[in-house]
Write a structure and sequence with these properties.
By secondary structure, this protein is mainly alpha-helical. About 85% of the residues lie in helices and about 0% in strands.
């Protein structure tokens, strides 16, 4: 009986150690995955800001072009409105 208990104890200790090793491995993978997700999140934020800046820059350029066109067009000149009556 004692031999069976000793064998079972040995088996449980080996299982416990294997479980601890597996848990440590999963925790390491989890930490690595969190770091990767954090880096990806940061990259997403940077790209979104760059895109927003690009859109604003395009709008600003369009406005400048419109303003320049308005400044260079003669003031009193109107487009023909038909027969003038």
């Amino acid at each position: 009986m004692k031999e069976k208990l000793t064998q079972r104890l040995k088996s449980l200790k080996a299982e416990f150690e294997a479980g601890q090793n597996l848990l440590a491995d999963y925790e390491s993978k989890q930490r690595s995955l969190r770091e990767t997700l954090l880096r990806i999140s940061g990259a997403i934020m940077v790209l979104e800001e760059m895109l927003a800046d690009s859109v604003e820059e395009e709008k600003s350029k369009e406005k400048q072009t419109i303003d320049i066109q308005a400044e260079t067009q003669p003031q009193g000149e109107l487009a023909p409105a038909g027969d003038g009556t």
